[in-house]
Amino acid sequence: MNIPFNWLEPEPSIDSNNETFPADQLDREKYAKFLTIFLAKQGYDDARDDDKKKRNYVLNLNAEWGAGKSYFLKRWAHDLKDHYPVVYIDAWKQDYSDDPLMTVVSSMIKQLRIQAGKDADKAVFKVSRKLIGLLKAAAPTLARGIATKYLGVDPLKIMEMADDKAIGDDIIIDKDGKPIDMGLAAKKMVEHLISEHDSKAKAIDSLKHNVEQWVEAVIGKNNTTKSYPAFIFIDELDRCRPSYAVEMLEAIKHIFDIPGVVFVVATDTEQLQHAVKAIYGEGFNAKQYLGRFFNSRYTFKAPSYAKLINVHCDVYKLSDEYLKTKKIITFPDSLDQIHNDERIALKNLTIVYEAFDLSARQVIQITDRLIATIDNMSNVQCLNIIYLTFLLCLREKDSEMYDLVCKNRFDADVKINGNTRKIVQHLSWGYLWADKNLTLNLQPQSIISVFMSGTSYGSTNTWEDGIYQCSLFSFINGIHDCLQQVKSERDVTVNNEYTTYSRSRNDQGSMTDYSKGNFWVKPAFNKLTPSIVDISYYKDLVELAANLDHIDG
């Protein structure tokens, strides 16, 4: 079935909640198209033999937090409703319930009844209380009551009286000192459990038949274009309390293996494994256990950092226009004056994130901290956003290294994990700096007009204002050197580098690496930065913001 998808435009929901779907910013539409065709064929295929046309299928849609699972599932379900029976269940919103089975059943009844155009009192959508009662699994806390009711024996009292003694065939346990035949008690318990199991098995079969009838009612509706299979979407399972999440999976796999019904369970599978271990212990093989419940797993490719923060963060607060309203001058400039391109600041941020190989959660968290810092500032002469972001990332990834960096120059020897190296070596080996280049808007002629080769002669600076490239590591190294020095020391260092540049130009006839913009970073920053600003200034900003943790949901 060829289903039209257009996720580039916002879409108002046809559901009663009046939800509006914004335009897709993470390029997820193509996944919806692919998975629709795949699952439709898994659940129903005319090319198969008659008794195999309809099949059950369970797909685990796996993506880490921040990848847009909920948006994807809701919009996908919305687009499919004109073509298939569809049920969307937010498991986390309903995990107050003690019975995940009832959550699924009630959601299916309500949503499929509406799609079938049936009244609430129609018999086909009624499930007897007796049936539901039989389906409820006896919780461990009820076992004592069941035993007492059916056997006249309180197993807890038996254990208390037995203490560390061996339990024989007869134990005196009641107030009259009447012996209990434990062999007979055990027999009755087994008989009860078998009876209970048989009743539940019959109830499950009956419920499966009910579900098939509900789906048929939707497909058989007059003037409908809907066909098999039915799509059941279950969202936010990894956010539920562990016991509820595990019980929900059991219900899906062992109760709803109904031909013509496909389940899509969206999870951060790594987080769901933690939930399983919370139930069965840290040594439990949660990955293998979860594999039992799904026919296959489809993992979303992580969105680019730029798309991620555009979706989750107020990135407009990094724009030149917003910074001007707060009278914050940044270095490097956030705006490409030549091409009027405000994306430079965002691009440079993502380069820093890439160097630290941050997770989606960390990217959103650090960007929120950066924006919160900007919101708390005004009338700032020179704010180095790239260097501030570097410190925020370093503190998030390696607090020990962060402390050492804040106290030392990059050429200082420090010992980490038994290895003594210069900080610059620890940093260069620990993160992904290679081929990471920043785009900088620099004005070389406003920094220096003439390179003096002696006391009375020099050469005119002919480098034009504009866009330069600079390696990320050279940028951070140069800025850090400046901030570790007092203003007078910075001036001497910069003047010495001017002289070195002038000589290299005269001797070699080229600027070597300086043409990439590396040379201009330190003198430009030094000229703009007030004398009172040093490493402690940036450390204070980081420490204030680092206490802000993003909580998903």
Layout of helices and strands, plus pairs?
Blueprint: E1 11-12, E2 20-21, H1 29-43, E3 57-62, H2 69-80, E4 86-90, H3 100-116, H4 129-135, H5 143-151, H6 155-162, E5 170-172, E6 179-181, H7 182-219, E7 230-235, H8 242-255, E8 261-267, H9 269-280, H10 286-291, E9 296-299, H11 305-312, H12 320-325, E10 328-330, H13 344-356, H14 360-375, E11 380-383, H15 385-397, H16 399-407, E12 413-416, E13 419-422, H17 423-430, E14 437-442, H18 444-447, E15 450-452, E16 458-460, E17 466-471, H19 472-483, H20 487-508, H21 518-528, H22 535-546
Parallel strand pairs: 3-8, 3-9, 4-7, 7-8, 10-11
Antiparallel strand pairs: 1-2, 5-6, 12-13, 14-17, 15-16
Helix pairs in contact: 3-7, 4-7, 8-9, 11-14, 13-15, 14-15, 14-22, 15-16, 15-22, 19-21, 20-21
Could you characterize what this model shows?
Helices cover about 50% and strands about 15% of the residues. The chain has helices spanning about 30-45, 70-80, 100-115, 130-135, 145-150, 155-160, 180-220, 240-255, 270-280, 285-290, 305-310, 320-325, 345-355, 360-375, 385-395, 400-405, 425-430, 445, 470-485, 485-510, 520-530, 535-545; strands at about 10, 20, 55-60, 85-90, 170, 180, 230-235, 260-265, 295-300, 330, 380-385, 415, 420, 435-440, 450, 460, 465-470. The chain is elongated, with a radius of gyration of 33 Å. It has a 5-stranded parallel beta sheet. A two-stranded antiparallel sheet has the order 1-2. With about 550 residues, the protein is α/β, with parallel strands linked by helices. The relative contact order is 0.09. It folds into 2 domains: about 10-115 and about 220-300, Rossmann fold; about 305-545, no CATH class. Strand 12 and strand 13 (about 420) form a beta hairpin. The chain is built from 22 helices and 17 strands. This is NTPase KAP. It holds the Pfam family KAP_NTPase. It comes from Photobacterium kishitanii.
